[in-house]
Structures are given as C-alpha cells and as structure tokens.
Specification:
single chain, globular
C-alpha cells in the first residue's frame, strides 16, 4: 500500500473511537507521530516482499526498531492497553514482520517478574531496541508446558546449569536475551532470562514458510549457567498464562492490520478498474465480499481491543477472551484475505507480491503462540466447565504457547 498510514488509520478507527477510546485516554498525537515515522523509516529501510528473508531483512527490521526507540516511539509501557493494539494494527498494516516494532514484546516478562538486578540489566537495552525471545516449545511435548523436560542441575556455588532442547524458536539469532522455561531441581516450572551470548547455546536455523522476518529454529542448551538473579519470580505456568493473555491481542491486531491493507488494496484496485472503464459495474458477489470483509475485520479489531482491556484490568475471563479472540480473529483475517485476493485477479497470486506474503504470514500466525484448535478447545472447556482455579490451570496446559 502507498496510502499514507495515518490516512488509513483514520479510515478504520474514526468510526470506532467511541468504543476504542470512550474516555479520551489515548494519545492520538503520539500514534500519528509513530505513523509518520514508520512511513519515513520504511522508505529508508525497505522491507517489501521482494526483500528476501534472512539476515538482510532482519537487519532492516532491527534498524527500524532501533530508530523508533531513539525517537521515543518504541516504549509503550506507560500507555493504555488499547494504545498498543492500535500501534500494532498500524505496524501490521505495513508488514506483519513489524510485530516487534513497538513495546517490550516477550521482554514484558522481565519487566513484570524480574528482580531489580535483572530489570536494571535488560530493560534499558530492550527499550533501546534490542529483542527478547521466548523458549517454551519442546520436541516431545509440543506447546504443552506441562511436558517440559529442559531442566537445571545445581552447581556448588548456588548457580544452576540448564540443559535441554527448545524448538520453533523465533528471533533465534537476533534476540539479545531469551526467557527460557525449565524444571527446577524440585520439579516445578520456572523461567529465567538468559543472555543470548552465554556459552553452551547452540542454534540450528530452519527456514519457515511465513513470519520470516526473524530467524527461526532449534535452540539447544548444554549446561548454560543460570544465576539466582536471572530467575523470574513466580510459578512458570502462571507467568505464561498472564503474559500470553496480554500478548495475544497484540498479535491479533498486527494480523488485522495486514488484512486491512489487503482490503484497502482491493477496494482501490476495483475503483481504478471501474474508473478506467475496464469494468462497467461491480458484480453483486464482489460487493458482498467487500461488505462482509469490512464487517469481520472491524468486529475482530473490537474483539482484540476488548481482550487487551480485560487483561489490563486483570479480569478473571481474560485468558478465555484472549485465546478465542486471537484464534477467531486470525482465522477470519486469513479467510478474508483468501477471498479478497480473488478480486485482484492474477496480480494477487504473484509469489513475490505483498499479498502472497501476508497470506503466508497469516498461516504462520495460526501456529504461533498457540495452535488455534487448542485455543478454541481451551476456551470451550472454560465455557462448559465451572471455572475454578484447578480448571483454569488444567486448561492452560492445552493452550500455551507455540512460539510467536
């Protein structure tokens, strides 16, 4: 899309402002500054679909994140949750690979659960533009944290040595720090922030079919030191549940921004063809597809907003809403893009085109941070079972998380 980003934001969000921002809490001026800066940076650090995956693309993405940090536009920690939803929608409108352009990402785990030493070490670096990865998924247990086998052995000086294998890890070579989930000597699930430069870590890069802005693959740990200050405070399962309840609405918003860009591309193309006389009138089937697409994307954005707001309030239904809205919204975005691309004709099926890339990325998001069937199932179980702490803990074993 060549449309100025802020113009697109206004088209989609202005009718929704009474619901998005009923109390006028959002700093729309800051959002506009972010929009302007994204357009400027993307003109310098191009990440069009023809820029290949790999180091060249990830270097440009990191450069964009770094520049946004230098201009004070990366940090969203003091903003309402809905601000981050709109910001990530804007990023996704330009490219889903910009899902790490704002905020702490998985570094929010360190901000919320790290001790003072850990926060002082990592938060300035993350807010300056460095990346945090997360390592949960394992070969034998998939995305089920209860099956975690990565474990630590105690060292005589009180430190731990962590060993194990994590798979399908995003930001594999770009992350400065990983939040790694493992078993403690007493068998409980815990998490620690591990410096990506520590010896004993081995990476095997695997080429993904979508979400290729960051490297992805296998991360092995062989007796990697974990100091007491590196360990996050709290039960590992609780940390995961809380984190992904807040993270999923941002993933969804990014995906919806990309689908909205396809929508605008299609509508613009149809208007141009009609103005040129290439088509005398739009078929009813095309008009129906456009109308349904706009309704679905708008309601999905409101769902992402509600999920983010519930997480911000600490509502007891946050996990359920976050899981089902993320799954439903991305499923809807994927379906809508597949339908709309037919209205573009053959140009929509170019392998090197942005629409084709968006379709690959949306497919990837059906696996990232929770395969959708497991998210729907967990939400369905909570709807049909009396909600007790034990029930919620059981559900969480089935919905957390494939790596995002």
């Amino acid at each position: 899309m060549t449309t100025p980003l802020w113009e697109a934001v206004g088209t989609w969000t202005t009718p929704l402002r009474p619901l998005l921002d009923p109390d006028n809490r959002l700093d729309w001026g800051r959002l506009q500054a972010l929009s302007t800066e994204l357009d400027r940076l993307l003109a310098v650090h191009r990440i069009d679909a023809d820029v290949p995956a790999g180091p060249q693309r990830s270097r440009r993405l990191l450069a964009i994140r770094l520049k946004l940090a230098q201009r004070g536009l990366l940090d969203t920690t003091g903003q309402p949750a809905v601000f981050s939803v709109v910001a990530q929608w804007m990023c996704g409108y330009r490219d889903i690979d910009l899902r790490d352009a704002t905020g702490l990402g998985h570094g929010a785990l360190i901000a919320r659960h790290g001790g003072s030493v850990l926060r002082q070490r990592w938060l300035p670096r993350l807010l300056a533009g460095e990346l945090c990865g997360i390592a949960v998924t394992e070969p034998h247990g998939g995305s089920c944290p209860a099956a975690t086998r990565t474990a630590v052995a105690a060292r005589c000086d009180g430190a731990w040595l962590i060993s194990g294998r994590k798979i399908w890890i995003s930001r594999l070579t770009e992350a400065a720090v990983f939040v790694v989930f493992f078993r403690t000597p007493d068998g409980s699930l815990a998490a620690a922030a591990i410096d990506a430069t520590q010896p004993g870590m081995h990476r095997e890069v695997v080429a993904p079919s979508g979400l290729a802005g960051w490297s992805w693959g296998v991360l092995d740990f062989h007796r990697v030191p974990v100091l007491p200050d590196d360990v996050l405070t709290g039960d590992g399962m609780v940390l995961l549940r809380e984190h992904f309840a807040e993270y999923r609405p941002l993933v969804l918003a990014t995906a919806l921004g990309a689908a909205a860009a396809v929508f605008d591309t299609v509508v613009e193309a149809l208007g141009v063809r009609q103005a040129r006389g290439e088509i005398s009138r739009l078929r009813d089937s095309a008009l129906i597809s456009v109308g349904k697409a706009h309704a679905c994307l708008t309601t999905a954005l409101l769902g992402a907003t509600l999920s983010a707001r519930l997480a911000e309030l600490g509502d007891s239904h946050t996990e359920r809403w976050s899981a089902e809205m993320k799954a439903h919204g991305i499923d809807a975005a994927d379906r809508i893009v597949a339908e709309l691309v037919l209205l573009l004709g053959a140009s929509g099926f170019r392998a090197d085109g942005q629409v084709a890339k968006i379709r690959r990325d949306l497919t990837g998001l059906q696996y990232a941070d929770g395969i959708h069937d497991s998210l729907y199932r967990a939400a369905g179980r909570q709807h049909t079972t009396r909600s007790t702490p034990a029930t919620l803990a059981h559900d969480s074993l089935h919905q957390l998380p494939a790596t995002a």
